[in-house]
Design brief:
Length: 224
């Protein structure tokens, strides 16, 4: 079986490590082979994917770093936007996200927007885990590295149900976004934002009215 692979990462040594892992999988199973191409940014990846889709076969796997240079037209700002694009124009392509991002809000967002077949936090992985991830994605996806699994387990164990707006509000508060600027980011008025914050503080059973305690509780529960 021949699999076409696109590695999208702007760090040559990391891209080489991924390519080496694919080659080792092929060495272990002579029936599995990979045709590997590489890209370093959104523009070159889009060009390759569109050109591939014009052919008769499907791009099998994309290994996607989230922090890659944006497209020149500004329509794609990161690997997350590229992953959404791949899902749209090539839904049969399996995506393995590999990223240094490890805060819970961003990990959750990638799971929701891309729903990758593999999700690796770079600090978790070694050569063997790369091989395991490739084998799993080929045969029985998904494959998540340990940090992603910990996040999912923590959130499954909680009774809180937060929607996308709640999560974004918590995230913006945690990074210090000023309340007066939040209506430009969220579909809420100042009054609506304050109401949401009160509801969140009640849900998390905070002992004070401080935003600092709300953020601390949200982190404990794995939402940040």
């Amino acid at each position: 079986m021949m699999y076409s692979v696109l590695i999208v990462d702007d760090h040559p040594l990391i891209a080489e490590a991924y390519e080496s892992a694919f080659n080792k999988v092929s060495d272990q199973d002579p029936n599995v082979n990979f045709l590997i191409s590489k890209s370093i940014d959104c523009d070159s990846a889009i060009e390759y994917i569109e050109k591939f889709n014009q052919g008769e076969s499907t791009l099998s796997i994309v290994v996607l770093d989230i922090r890659i240079p944006p497209s020149a037209d500004g329509k794609m700002l990161s690997g997350e936007d590229l992953g959404i694009f791949i899902n749209k124009i090539s839904p049969d392509t399996k995506i393995i996200v590999s990223t240094t991002l490890n805060d819970n809000y961003k990990v959750h967002n990638i799971l929701k927007t891309i729903n990758p077949d593999g999700f690796l936090i770079k600090n978790d992985i070694n050569a063997q885990e790369l091989i395991d991830a490739i084998n799993s994605v080929i045969t029985d996806p998904p494959y998540y590295s340990k940090s992603v699994i910990k996040l999912l387990r923590k959130q499954v164990s909680t009774d809180y149900l937060l929607d996308r707006t709640d999560r974004r509000l918590l995230y913006e508060i945690s990074i210090g976004t000023r309340t007066k600027d939040l209506p430009d980011i969220l579909p809420l008025s100042i009054a609506g934002i304050e109401r949401r914050k009160r509801q969140l503080k009640k849900a998390f059973n905070t002992e004070t009215d401080e935003d600092k305690e709300l953020i601390m509780k949200a982190k404990e529960k794995g939402f940040l």
